[in-house]
Structure formats: structure tokens, C-alpha cells
Fold:
Amino acid sequence: MKRIAVMLLVSVLSVSLWAQKDTLNVTDKAGKKQGRWIKKHPNGKVFYEGQFKDDIPYGQFKYYYQSGELQTIVVFSDKGQTRRAKMYHKNGKLMAEGKYTGEKRDSVWRFYNDMGYYISSEPYKDGKKEGVAYTYFSDSSGVWGVAELITYKNDVKNGLWQQFYPDSSKKTSANYLNGL
Structure:
């Protein structure tokens, strides 16, 4: 009899555990997002999936194109204020990677063509280009030279601008002053 009672208890517990569902898209009494969220495009495909605590995103989020391919992976930290992003072309190749502070680009961003080759870098400060941006000659063997460099100050071309030939010889050079 004791054995039957134990088996019955195990059966009930296993069925109740099996029946529990992952809770999605929950808001608390204050209306703040909590836990795992999945939002969908109007066509029913997933737009993003990630998690919130007190309406603040944390950890890894994945965003998708309407056609279903992965578009962006964002890793949130510092209570959602800092995020590292990797963006992808529809063919799955890396398109860009960099950091956001708040809602603004920050630090050096790297960009790739649809073949996945590294083609340029741009420095940002508070969402504005600040410093020297480079465009590279690159192919499947890697980066093999600077094609162009442009100096920015407060998101405006300001300073040295140069273009180069594939053999690294200088093609042209100028200096910008406040965008001119």
C-alpha cells in the first residue's frame, strides 16, 4: 500500500512539473516587464527574444529580420546602460560590431561587407564620430591596406583626409576644417 501511495505521489508530481509552462511576456503590478520576453513581427515571425528585470533588459537579446534570419545579438550590462552589439547581414555574415553607452554608439565600431570581410572602423564618443575612421582594402586573405582615412571631430570631418592605392601609395590628401 505504501508503495502504491509513493508511486501515485511521484506520478502526480511528475505530471504537474511536466505541465508547467515557461512564463513569457509577463508584466508585474506596476506594469514593468519581468522575465523572458518574445515579441513577434506582424507576420508572426520572432522580432526579438530576451529578458527583463523591472523593465530593464539584461543579458543576451536576439533580434531577427521579418524573414526570420538573425539580425542582431545584443548583450546588455550595467543595468541596461551598456550593450555590446553584433549585427548580421541576411546571409548570416557579420555586418558590424561595437558598443552602445545609453542609446549612443561608443568606442570603435568595426564594419564588414556581406562576404564577412573587415572593411572599415569608426571611432565614436557619445554617438558622434570622434577620431580617425579607416576604410580598408580586404579580401578572403584579410585586411591588406588602408584605402582611406578621415579624421572627425564632433561628427564633422575635421583634420587629415587621405586616400591610398592598393599598393599603399598615396592617391590624394587634404585637410578638412569644420567639414570643409
Observations:
- The two ends are 92 Å apart (CA to CA).
- Residues 40 and 46 are 4 Å apart (CA to CA).
- The first helix runs from residue 2 to 19.
